[in-house]
Amino acid sequence: MQQRAEQFRQAYNKLYAEIGKVIVGHTDIVHGVLTCLFVGGHALLEGVPGLGKTLLVRTLSQAIDLNFNRIQFTPDLMPSDIIGTNIISEGADGKRVFSFQAGPLFAQIVLADEINRATPKTQSALLEAMQEHSVTVGGTIHRLQEPFFVMATQNPIEQEGTYPLPEAQLDRFFFKLIVNYSGRDEMATILDRTTRNEWPQADKVMNGAEIRQWQGLVREVLVAPPVQDYAIRLVLATHPQGEFATSDANKYIRFGGSPRGAQALVLGGKVRALLEGRYNVSFEDIRRVYLPALRHRVLLNFEAQAENIPSDTVLAQILNEVKEKPSDIVKPVPA
């Protein structure tokens, strides 16, 4: 196990270094995307235009040997434009038959660029693919090639011409990553790379078989019952009026996190543990993936929206209040 874990860290760092040839800064974002990759989850990147969201996903596709397609979401995009449709074709015997023409969704890495510019109907076309890794057209199920990832980008909801993603679709994203502005030094490096005759490219350092191998290793990392219970209570604390709900959850949250949120906490924690050279998840591992795992899985109520309180603020308060050891566990009194 120790040897395999060391091999994973070397492969992870090599992939991270290749992405770093093109992407400047955004360390947490790159780690978040790679975490999604090694647990088999999908990533949603949110930020204003020009921050390198699309470039990051393109660079990832260059560094791993998987089929890649980019879909530009627009208001007139239809579900059939994404998943494909049945068309009438003429066979060798001259008879006309229905045949399935696959859409751009049939790739292993799909970049859903500006996903919130399409209508909810088209956005929802991804639901089955993201959860089941298959699409159903005309009553026939078509399997997608493994491994399969959807890496979506979106602009903030407040911008004109966008549609909020349906809650059911948001829940299928493993992480939601907020891409912020670059700092002074990072901006200088970006300008050096983009305003001169320098065009760095990432080399392919990993293939699909290796990714699936590392996904299996991640799931072998152990989680002690107290750590798993901590992840569970963090999710239950987001349920208003629930047993573990905090005051902020009762005041600002309309609907809390789903079981997928707890899965994201545990699996994300396993990746962090391996990168730290451990084979068991710690409480700190859970805390480090808490915000990207849950920020898109809680629905704030009108009071939070009226006071302009973001979900990260509410979740950070919950994280501070939920203790590692629950109060309902009483230590035995020595005889």
Write up what this structure looks like.
This protein has two domains: 192 residues, P-loop containing nucleotide triphosphate hydrolases (Rossmann fold); 106 residues, Magnesium chelatase subunit I, C-Terminal domain (Helicase, Ruva Protein, domain 3), CATH 1.10.8.80. It is built from 16 helices and 13 strands. It has a five-stranded parallel sheet with strand order 3-6-9-1-10. A two-stranded parallel sheet has the order 2-11. Strands 4-5 form a two-stranded antiparallel sheet. A hairpin with a 5-residue loop joins strand 4 and strand 5.
Write the layout of secondary structure elements.
Blueprint: H1 2-20, H2 27-39, E1 43-46, H3 53-63, E2 64-65, E3 68-72, H4 79-83, E4 84-90, E5 96-102, E6 109-113, H5 120-123, H6 127-132, E7 134-137, E8 140-143, E9 149-154, H7 167-170, E10 175-178, H8 184-194, E11 206-207, H9 208-220, H10 225-236, H11 247-252, E12 253-255, H12 259-275, H13 283-288, H14 290-294, E13 299-300, H15 302-306, H16 311-321
Parallel strand pairs: 1-9, 1-10, 2-11, 3-6, 6-9
Antiparallel strand pairs: 4-5, 7-8, 12-13
Number of helices: 16
Low-confidence stretches: none
CATH class (first level) name of the largest domain: Alpha Beta
Domain count: the total is 2
Strand order of the largest sheet: 3-6-9-1-10
What kind of sheet is the major sheet?
5 strands, parallel
Averaged pLDDT: 88
From the 3D coordinates, which CATH architecture of the largest domain would you assign? 3-Layer(aba) Sandwich
Radius of gyration: 22 Å
CATH superfamily (homologous) name of the largest domain: P-loop containing nucleotide triphosphate hydrolases
